[in-house]
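User: For a benchmark we're assembling, each entry needs the component sequences followed by a predicted structure for the full assembly. Here are entry 17's components. Please fill in the structure.
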Amino acid sequence: MSGEPILSVRDLERHYPITRGLFRREVGRVRAVDGVSFDLERGETLALVGESGCGKSTAARTLVGLEDPTGGTVRFDGADVTTADGRVATDFRRRVGMVFQDPDSSFNPRMPVGEAVGEPLRIHGMRDEQRERAIVTELLELVGLSASHYDRYPHEFSGGQKQRLALARALVLDPEVVVADEPVSALDRRVQDDVLDLMADLQERFDLSILFISHDVDVVRSFCDRVAVMYLGELVERGPVETVFEEPAHPYTRALLGSVPALDPGDRGELVTLTGEVGDPADPPTGCRFHPRCPAVIPPPEYDLPREEWRALLDLRFAVADAADADEDPRTGDRSLREAHGVPAPLSDPDAEAVLERALTDVEDGATERGARRLAEAFTTVCEAEVPPEIDVDDRPVTCHRHDDRGD
Amino acid sequence: MPAPEDPPETAAFQRVDWDDLENRWYRPRLRTVLFLCWLAGIGGLYLYDRYYAHVYLVGEWKVSLLDWLFLLSLAVFVSYVLVPAARNRERTLGYWRRLRRDRPALIASAYVAVFVLVGLVGPLVTGDARIRFEHQFQPPIGFTSDASLVHDCLGTAADGRCGWSLQYPLGTDVRGHDVLALSVLGARVALYVSMITATVVVPIALGVGVVAGYVGGRVDDLAMAYVDVQQFVPAILLYLLFKVYFGRSLFLLVVAFGLLSWGGIARLVRSETLQRREEGYVLAARSAGAGRLYVVRKHLLPNVSSTVVPAVAHLIPVLVLTEAGIAFLGLGETGLNSWGMTIAHGLDETWAAPLDQWWVSLVPAVFLTTTVAAFKLAGDGLRDALDPRGDR
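Assistant: Structure for entry 17:
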């Protein structure tokens, strides 16, 4: 394990244009991956973790070249492979293997699995059928299957067996890096463990570096060395699994950990749950992208409000703003706006209470827009106004205002 | 953990010298070589026929434009269907095993095979249907006809009825044409129609569908918009237009229908391609370095067969029926003994009531119906047989 990372990703971007009309005019962009940087060290297992829809799979596909990056660079073993072609590209493709999430779509239903496992060999120019068969047979045994499986078709295998086959296919070109996109998410817990054990075994035997994409915090905890937490196209926190998971520095990491049902409910003091959905990557929130959902969003210094009250107040503010944009009445049903968003009456800060009172009266009078403006002027947060810089917290990069000098 | 005991020091895949493998110049496959040879052969023959031979190519064979087209489609069929099937015997045996279990499809396929054989070889045996007015209105085996209509009764005549004879097992029509010979000649017409249109339709539909689905974007929009427009132009209208300018000809009919009928299948292929291009096995191949052409050949085309085979098998009978319909209406090529034309002759009341010559229309009608049904059944059976998942 020399010092230089095997795979180094800088500011990787993958935007999809949203087009309209006959001439495909670009009217917007989906920022699926929006400036992601990390290093994969030799021999380690790095997890890319986040909710579904956060762009982690797109990041994986982009860095192996299945999607064209719209920005950033990928360096493999010192060479820039972002837009490489010819020798460098061939080399890169040979030395990086990939495993996909869905075992059922991973194999062509009309191709015997032996042929499928050996396919990369043929793609890389092997014409000797005997040799191909020998290599594949040995690999099948290595992943816990047998030579007799060579001529069978994919539908004859279970999900776990197919993921073993997928591992065999990823290994057949003798790669140094394996990118595994949710390799065990579709499997039962017991089968998951078997496949993970196999991966660990193969990793040790063939000196593999693994980029492990997952939404499952428990799997990451048991299998990976380091972790990068991704939210809405960006990384929010990176570091060794133990420290990140024991002392999460970003509220999103904390929330992600809380959202996993623990077997022993007593083993974590503070349990936060994530509400709402991952934002829209076509129109990401300004500032910190997590601020619309963040339980620890920072209040402005002029008010003295407890965390929950501030969160509720912001939710109310966003709801009124959305309603004003859509030209609707923010009040739904017979519940008051305060009740609907859990804002206590009165607020513990009298100044804030006064502003809120006035804004609610505006809404009451049908002047939703004026109310929204009043709320937006008074209740601001740095999380919404400014993009958080990357800060080192205990030697790990975190992007959250709570850790720069403005927070707390 | 089923790890192997005492594994060797290095695995076989670790001992591959990758640089050694990469002198991969293109090696054409047998089917391509064969197809090109066949193509060159047909080309040479065509030039010989055109500039050297007079009127007849071999014996009394006057090769028409349609015949050349048929030879071409035969070349495609043999090179890209039969040769790969023979080369990959194990897989073909698997198909056969699955087909055998589906009794109706098996019978239908057997019928289609016989139909192809009769269409190919039959006319050589029966020869052209010759006019022999003295033998008009002979009844088929087991039946009698009105003796007053018959000139020379070849069977035993009794009670004003003429009995059957072995010389014309399916009887004769008003001009003394042998109905059996007419049916065989009709089979050739139907075979021409089905083979040629299939070899025009399938490559175009596959090409357009796969390119539209795989490339996507503007190409896709344009291709599908064109298909929409094309589907508004009825092929029969184009044929009637051709007829005005060039006269009646089966060649033009086949061309018109071949060039205008691929839209629906192209659309199917496109949606299938769209669905499959993001599948794990396509991504896996691409991440290993496979090019677009490789992915199309190895992963997309084999998987669209399950939609294309039945779609073509349903299209062919429609075209055969359409040709018969056109011939029945008297708009087909003159002198071509299509089943539709023979049926029309059998229903012509000028010389005898249709019921007094029922076999003239019934026999080709039965062949037509059976052929149409067989194609549909065989197509569905073939689709199931081509799918390895049927092996459970």
